[in-house]
Amino acid sequence: MKSILLWIYRLAVIPTTLIAMVILGMWGYVLSFFDKSGDKTMDFSARPFGNFVLMILAKPIEIKGLERLDPDGVYIFMPNHTSFLDIPIAVSKFPYNVRVIAKDLFFRIPFFGLAMTHSRNLRMHRDNPRKDLKTLSNGRALLKEGKSIVVFPEGSRTRTGRLQPLKTALFTLAIRSGAAVVPVAIKGAYESLPPDSIRLVHHPISMEYLDPIDSTQYSIKERGKFADHVFQVLKNHLEKDQEPLKTNQ
Predict the structure, then answer these.
(1) For a designed S-S bond to 237, which of 57, 121, 152, 185 qualifies (C-beta 3.0 to 4.6 A apart)?
(2) Over the stretch 60-87, which tens digit does the pLDDT of each residue have?
(3) What is the pTM (predicted TM-score) of this model?
(4) Among residues 189, 194, 174, 181, which one has the least CA distance to residue 231?
(5) Topology of domain 2-242, CATH
(6) What Cα–Cα distance (Å) separates residue 206 from each residue in 46, 157, 189, 191, 242?
(7) For the chain, what are the domain ranges?
């Protein structure tokens, strides 16, 4: 009986999520006409959708490490990337005025993509380096406005649950802007919703903010060294089965 109810729940989740995506995406599009900063669109469209997805797909998220951060600070948050749930976590659970750098796929999701675009989140194009340079430039502009940024430095979701090598190009944004980098250790999202799966498991999820790292101590030529530093910090704070099988080289 329990398994039957679980399958009914899983089947109900998909249409419910799609309905919420349409409603909040359209609402975000309307809001964008009156919100050049993107703040209201983020707060009343993208964030609610992220919270809704997490409410029906996952257990409440345990958040740790806020005492390490300056409430008035501007940061570049760098979480490990294990699940589709990481994007809803990024748009809804970071307690700052944040924008997310995410791959182009999320911006092509009907209605949700509109909310992401009009709240001034940033898209990465794997096959177009010139557009990615423009994205990083726009990221610097957002940081100057006092908005923090969330970027997944692995570049794509892990298929094994283990930490992957970090993309050094993303660290140029931190070095050129001078914004401190905050590694963020996410645990449990992979078990809740693995990549390429619709199998939903109510598994505990936690997110821990680690100590900010001063970007001004690195030059552009040292971005690889910077990436290695963040890689080691994340590695040291993840579970044993999330530890990488190879170094950040």
Answers:
(1) 185
(2) 889 999 999 999 999 999 999 988 888 8
(3) 0.87
(4) 181
(5) Glycerol-3-phosphate (1)-acyltransferase (3.40.1130)
(6) 21, 17, 8, 12, 14
(7) 2-242
